[in-house]
Amino acid sequence: MANWSFWLCFALIVYSVTRSDARTLNPLVKKRRELSVRYRTVLEEAQEMYHFRLRNDGLSKIWDGSKRVSPGGPDPKHH
Questions:
Q1: Does residue 31 belong to any structural domain of this protein?
Q2: How far is residue 38's CA from residue 17's CA, in Å, rounded to a whole number?
Q3: Would you indicate the residue range of the signal peptide (predicted)?
Q4: Is residue 53 one of the residues assigned to a domain?
Q5: Is residue 36 one of the residues assigned to a domain?
Q6: d(C-alpha 78, C-alpha 48), whole Å
Q7: Domain assignment of residue 5, yes or no
Q8: Contact 54, 60 (CB under 8 A)
Q9: How many distinct structural domains can be found in the chain?
Q10: Which distant-in-sequence residues (6+ apart) come within 8 Å of 53 by Cβ?
Q11: How much is the pLDDT for 11?
Q12: pTM over 0.70
């Protein structure tokens, strides 16, 4: 009896996996590719504008490195 129930359960699992198999939807895949190309070009343009703005504003020096110094204060051994 246990053997029969095992095979029934196994068959149901296999059946459910085969019925829920993903299928490719070609029109949706094509649209997604077109959108990704559009987003990529917009992203590249935005990055170029951002870098151009940083160069013009002189803010690119800020991103070079941190010039922060730890505070000495009256008692440097306090912390």
A1: yes
A2: 36
A3: 1-22
A4: yes
A5: yes
A6: 46
A7: no
A8: yes
A9: 1
A10: 59
A11: 92
A12: no
Amino acid at 73: G
Residue 49, phi then psi, degrees to nearest 5: -65, -40
Structure tokens at 46: 């935005």
The pLDDT of residue 37 is: 76
Phi-psi region of 54 (alpha: psi -120 to 50; beta: other; left: phi over 0): alpha
- Residue 3 is predicted with a pLDDT of 84
DSSP 20: T
Segments of the chain scoring below 70 in pLDDT: 1, 21-31, 52-79
Q: Where are the alpha helices (DSSP H) in 1-79?
A: 2-19, 26-57
The pLDDT value recorded for residue 55 is: 60
| pLDDT attached to residue 5 | 87
**Size (the chain), residues:** 79
Contact between 63 and 54 (Cβ < 8 Å) = yes
In the structure encoding, which two tokens stand for residue 56, read together?
Answer: 């013009």
Give the pLDDT score at 70. 63
The span from the CA of 21 to the CA of 35, in Å, is 26
